[in-house]
Automatic annotation (TrEMBL):
Matches recorded under CDD domains: RasGEF, REM
Positions of the Ras-GEF domain: 495-730
GO MF, any single term: guanyl-nucleotide exchange factor activity
Name of the molecule in the record: Rap guanine nucleotide exchange factor 5
InterPro entries named in the record: Ras-like_GEF, Ras-like_Gua-exchang_fac_N, Ras_G-nucl-exch_fac_CS, Ras_GEF_dom_sf, RASGEF_cat_dom, RASGEF_cat_dom_sf, Ubiquitin-like_domsf, WH-like_DNA-bd_sf
Parts forming coiled coils: none
Organism: Bison bison bison
Compartment(s) where it occurs, according to its Swiss-Prot or TrEMBL record: Nucleus
Amino acid sequence: MAIGVWQLLLDMGILSSVDQHLYFQDTYVFYQFSSEECSYLYCEFEREEEWQNGVRLLLQLVPLIPSRAGICELSHQKIEDSEESSDEILARLTSAVQRELAAVIALKARKSALAQDEENSDKHVTVTEAEAAADPQAGMMCKLQERDDIGRIELVQKLARESCQFLQTDKKEQEKSEHQDDEVTMVEVKEQDQNVLVLKKVQSCGPAPQAGSAESDWRYVVVSGTPEKILEHLLNDLHLEEVQDKETETLLDDFLLTYTVFMTTDDLCQALLRHYSAKKYQGKEENSDVPCRKRKVLHLVSQWIALYKDWLHEDEHSKMFLKTIYRNVLDDVYEYPILEKELKEFQKILGMHRRHTVDEYSPQRKNKALFHQFSLKENWLQHRGAVTESEEIFCHVYITEHSYVSVKATVSSTAQEILRVVAEKIQHAEDDLALVAVTFSGEKHELQPNNLAISKSLDASGRIYVYRKDLADTLNPFAENEESQQRSIRILGMNTWDLALELMNFDWSLFSSIHEQELIYFTFSRQGSGEHTANLSLLLQRCNEVQLWVATEILLCSPLGKRVQLVKKFIKIAAHCKAQRNLNSFFAIVMGLNTASVSRLSQTWEKIPGKFKKLFSELESLTDPSLNHKAYRDAFKKMKPPKIPFMPLLLKDVTFIHEGNKTFLDNLVNFEKLHMIADTVRTLRHCRTNQFGGDISPKEHPELKSYVHHLYVIDSQQALFELSHRIEPRV
């Protein structure tokens, strides 16, 4: 019933889909009210009784809506457009899902055709011949094997629209055919009649380990398997040359990026210790292969540390593991001198500055050396002791009920430090202001200058407000709109290029701090993963605040002439953000200008010069969501790094892969899915290949920096609409 109500609102034009969907979906789709329906000042259902009557009316109308179940037709425009975006869509689906998708579409088309055939039994239905159909009278079979095969799905859709019949093929015959196709390329490793590893034969893209052999151009990549067997295959595939072949390097990176999905860090540590210390490997092992196997494990551990950096400091299992394996290397280096290179690498990683020769690890001197090593200060393992004190968050200091100043500060910041920033932002004397913690139950507590201003529990229990002090030191809150009326429009006097540069610098500091693993946690651990996605959350929050900042600045500007200048200035800033390859702020500014409370300002937009309207139209086209944001993706690919992507869209891509593919298939890890997720996550690495500099090197602008770092925003859509109707009332 609830979905029916939303569908009714969509059909009536009260709601509109950002992605132009015709049918309501309640997950991962964005909707907005039409501009004419967003007026809170003229709401006909303002009183509770009228609101209930309105809801009853909607419920009465819902049964009159035609049922949407089973509808799989798309508009002609959508069908035509799908040819352009099909490769991108299929790239996010594993081969197993592709086959299932084709089967479902064929089944739906067959049921639809048979139902129509029963109603129109006198009508002759032509059976269309298609590829892979041996008998024209037997219908067709749609089968997907490769990612670029979505054309077959489009063919099925086309045949369904032409009322063609789809006859079910013999299941055993189909399974036999699929088995014949797969037996050459797929290898299944079994233990006790159970699959433990599935590999796919693919053409190698890099140097093969055995040059000149018949198999040198082919490799086996992991499709699915148990965690232990995937790790074992990875270690077997590693070789100890300076440069790994592309497939092995990718497999190693995929595994390290996504292992937390299917095993704990403790499980990985124990498995690596078993592989390092095993007396035999796969039942038999020559003595010369022992150091080779140990070096492979150490190489994997080195890559793991290099990828995760300080993340491993926070895990007790990994810290204990590194101590243990370091002791093992000390034990083995005398017997296997070839391990000395790996030992030095470990000492470098762990921050142990003293170096030793092989002789120092002889049985007579080993205990002394071991004692000395662990009597040193282990810088690497102790580095993160005060991580919570230096952690940065956005502190929202509310001026009124619906407006706040966003202050990026460390958890250890004092109330005096925060108050100094807010006083400068709202242009009041610091001595006349005070910070007050207000709980949602109404309790108030004044923060003293040396008090810690930020508490992680405060967000859940209340807010921080800035109050004025009168002559008797009585605290009084700011009245609604009182503070905003006193603000001067400082942004009009700022250089747009320099302002865009400061936005880029701020966004880059947030973006460069995001660990690739945060995207994995965000996707797979939607609940309780805040501590693992702190940097990612900051950048997403910043994007939302920039959008609100644009609307706030425009709607707080009452004079029409200055408001027109402000809109022109924001259009120029958006263009500069694009030129500086900061797509996160670019999207936020364009969306802020397109906010319903701003876009309805017809008097303002009428006075915008034609060249600015044309520029804004060009910028808007880059944010067009059609064809899965094709315009943005094409433009972003052409940009050279360093660059800042639009993070919400990157997260949408990862989520699409996750939701569209199962993580486990027949109790095996679906590693094909994890490879696609890791490949998308590696976008961060590509974007951060270089550092910003050269033609866009920043200049020192303290005032600009302070302005950009501490944005003043109104976070209530209702308050924004009230401002919008106040400066340009509805005619």
